[in-house]
Amino acid sequence: MNPAIRALRRLYSQQTALTMSRAGRLYNKTNLAESSDEFPKNDSLKLMMYHYPFSIRDSIPRHDSEVTDVVKRFDQFCYYAGPERELYVGTIVLDCYQVIESADNLTVKNLRLASILAWVFENITTGCIVGDDLLDGHGVRWNKPCWHKTLPANQTSFLDIKKIQTGAKLLLCKYFRNHPNFPQLLNLICEFVHCIHLGQTVDFNLSEAFRKTRDGDLLKMENYKTLVMYKTGFPLYVAAPLGAMYLANFDTHRYFPSKHIFEKLYIYRQAQVRLNALLFTLKLKLLERHVGLFLRSQGCREESLRCR
């Protein structure tokens, strides 16, 4: 097996999803072209956080006074739903790039560009997550209200999803228009957006159909594989490594012979995520039951707990 592909497979066997709590603070908004003694070259997550303000600033096509309210809303949305969460796709892009790029080309300039590309993918993912919360009716995400729960009833967060995903395309065009693989990168992010929205549609329709019909055939492995491919497989195991390869001018034909390995990984990963979520829900229900029994034994009413 090619050494680069072997390294990519090893990366996927590790925990690449990192949290904001480990990243420290967002770095000061200095000019992207300036050098900095604090440049976190050897820390992938801090490297991403260093460039987040630039990725938001350069996702906005206009800063005219008549669109000030729109820009403020966009900025608020990006900082509310963007960095303070698990970052899967972006860290994979950055880690893959540092693995397959030659040591001579791992310059500060190229690492900056890799970080911007990571946020192109991650900002698209942000839109996907907010969309999931809307479709599934979630109220809480990452221990705080979902974005759509913070808005007045007459406002829609679907527009915010479109803005951040369109902004990701503008960000790509700004920084990579002169890259030799720009057409491939542009096509990749378009396919990325298409796949995640298709996956959301399949997920929603299957869930609704099963809720109404209780048809067990809807839960077949064939449907599960299709759903997981669009919602998890393509973003993490296709788009992210291919994006890093295009950036490094790496021969992407070496990736596809290992595609069947990645298919097994994303199916296993999604099953593990669902199982962990189920176990967490069961623990919460058991905890609520035990607390209720304790309150009743103390002569308290369960409503008092809910009020608190």
Automatic annotation (TrEMBL):
Family: Belongs to the FPP/GGPP synthase family.
Coiled coil: none
Protein name: Uncharacterized protein
GO CC entries: cytoplasm
Keywords from the UniProt entry: Magnesium, Metal-binding, Transferase
GO molecular function: (2E,6E)-farnesyl diphosphate synthase activity; dimethylallyltranstransferase activity; metal ion binding
Originating species: Photinus pyralis
Pathway annotation: Pheromone biosynthesis
GO biological process terms, semicolon-separated: farnesyl diphosphate biosynthetic process; pheromone biosynthetic process
Annotated Pfam families: polyprenyl_synt
Keyword Magnesium among UniProt keywords: yes
PANTHER family assigned to the protein according to its UniProt record, in alphabetical order: FARNESYL PYROPHOSPHATE SYNTHASE, FARNESYL-PYROPHOSPHATE SYNTHETASE
Organism domain of life: Eukaryota
Cofactor(s) for this UniProt protein: Mg(2+)
